[in-house]
Amino acid sequence: MGLRFNSNALNDSETILPKSREIANLIARYSGVIGRKVFNIHSRLCQSAMRLGRSTTKLAYLVPALALLGVSIIGIVAYASQVGLQTQAADSLRAVPLLSLNQLNASTAKLYGIHGVLDVGSASKGGQSITATPGELISLTLKLSYTSFDSTFSWASASFQPAPGQTVAGGLDVSAYESYSPSTSTVYSNQPVFVTLTFQVPSNANPQTFRLLPSGLTVSPAGIAVVMENDVEVVIL
Amino acid sequence: MNAVGKLFAVSLAMFFVFGALPTHAVTPQEYVGAYFTNQQATATKAFLENDFSGTNPSIIPSTSWLGSVLSIAGQSSSSPCPCLYQTGFQLYPNNTVQATSQFYGAQSNNPPLGCIYCAWIKNVGTVSAFDYDGEINYKSSCSCIQSSAYVYSTLTQVENNSPNIYRFSGIYTGDVTNPFYYGITTNTSCYAEPMQRYQAGLESPNIGSGAWYVNQRVAEVYASGWLYQPANSDEGNLSYITCYNGQSYVVGGAQMTGVNVNSANLGTDSPSWKYTGTTIGQDKSLWTGSGGTTPYPCQVSGRC
Predict the structure, then answer these.
(1) Cβ contact (<8 Å) for B4 and A82?
(2) Phi, psi (5° rounding) for residue A167?
(3) Bridge partners for B182 per DSSP
(4) Which residues pair with B233 in a beta bridge?
(5) What are the tens digits of pLDDT across the range B45-72?
(6) Cβ distance A233 to A129 under 8 Å?
(7) Residue in A78, A211, A217 nearest the CB of B21
(8) Which residues pair with A196 in a beta bridge?
(9) Inter-chain contact B4–A96, Cβ cutoff 8 Å?
(10) pLDDT digits (tens, 9 = 90+) for B101-122
(11) A34 touches chain B (CB under 8 A)
């Protein structure tokens, strides 16, 4: 390809002044020269771009490939180290960190072997203060809710068994005056159960204040965590 | 397919196979504690009194907490034990305290030592409480392990010995009537690592570097009476406490750097800890005497 200029077209025109023709010829001559030079540069650039394009294509595959390889190696090393920890001889080390409630989620539950969480809260009067008189019967409603982290642990069993000395306030062993109905419940995931806690204030109770909390709770099967939301302050007048 | 393409394809495959593998271990937490140095013996109860009144909760990093915890190893070799029992209190930056009991033992389809029983009670108090007492007890009436938290929030409760009592019971087979160990032993399948069976310590995901102190008192066990033994210091990376299936386990997992004893309050059966900027390190003597006193909540008959 090249620039072609038909100088003969100028010669065919009788209206072009001789000076203009000379100028036009000069322009045509140098245009051709310049055009050829531009073409040569363009051609060299195209060839360079083609060579670069082939290299770029390689790079387009190579860079991400190396990145993936690096990540894979890191993953292999991490996995191998974990496997190594698990299969190492008897002097390998494992930690048993104390778990906090705000750290508990589906992922950490798995690491700690927790299959679900039973939440025990007060459906009525939770966190409040109840005033009672000697001989009065106090009734609270507890709400038991179960969240499963493992589909094979779809329920939890909760049993309330007040034990002597549960709460002693000024000599009053309140646990002896508690009762739960039902005393044992099976709680399924997303199906809360309500339990009535009844407290009979002794007729000879002295004025005092104590906190009443669902007590003596036993949960099964193993691996079910328990969260007690709140207790209730009782003021005996 | 040229070499680069092959490399790309292989790397892509490896990435999906290995690159996204999850890690399996829990995250170690900072821990420092005291352990009894006597030769291993058995006990039926364990106790520890905890006092956060020397800590301004705002110095605790916002996503963290400061725990004061009693840890004791169970002795039975029958499933699910030997177990690890912990009871303690966790102070949060918003000045709330949660009581917690966490019992670890073997479970099928779980980490070798998993949480058989973990319980939390929200909002049992603040740093202004006089004492948070934790007790772990074997109850023959139910053949179960019982965890109790005694909280003395007011002076009236202290004077009347009428704490708020929070109690949980876990029923486990395999524990004998003297279910706990205290003291140290190297006679386990975990080679020569010394198991420090009773530990009273502090734990945190990240305690930061603010000035604080936590006093612990009445670090004791019950074996024909309440008692304590000479004690040394324990860091979380060396706080071996139990050996199960040839695998040793430590409390916490990481050293609690910058924490040393609170000399003003350190005494026999009373480990006290303070952020000083210097780390106490492992196996430093805390007290050398032995003796015993009945813990205050247990002075009410039938309570402990």
Answers:
(1) no
(2) -140, 125
(3) B41
(4) B34
(5) 999 999 999 999 999 999 999 999 999 9
(6) yes
(7) A78
(8) A141, A181
(9) no
(10) 998 887 765 567 788 889 998 8
(11) no
Query: What tokens appear for A125 in the block?
Result: 């009067």
Q: Chain A neighbours among B 87-106 (CB < 8 Å)?
A: 88, 90, 92, 98, 100, 102, 104-105
CA–CA dist A94, A39 (Å, integer): 73
Count of positions (residues) in chain B: 304
Q: Which of residues 61-120 of A touch B (CB under 8 A)?
A: 61-62, 64-66, 68-69, 71-72, 74-76, 78-79, 82, 85-86, 89-103, 108, 111-114
Q: What is the spatial distance between Cα B152 and Cα B56, in angstroms, rounded to a whole number?
A: 19
Q: Is A108 helix (H, G, I), strand (E, B) or coil?
A: helix
pLDDT digits (tens, 9 = 90+) for A218-228: 888 888 999 98
Chain A residues with CB under 8 Å of B4 CB are 58, 61-62, 65
Helix (H) or strand (E) holding B7, with range, is helix B3-14
Q: Which pLDDT tens digit goes with each residue over A133-162? A: 989 998 888 899 999 999 999 999 998 877
Q: Which secondary structure element, helix H or strand E, spans residue B26, and what is its range?
A: none
Close Cβ partners of A204 (under 8 Å, ≥ 6 residues apart): A134
Burial pattern B107-120, b for ≥16 Cβ within 10 A else e, equals beebbbbbbbbbbb
Residue A129, both tokens: 């203060």
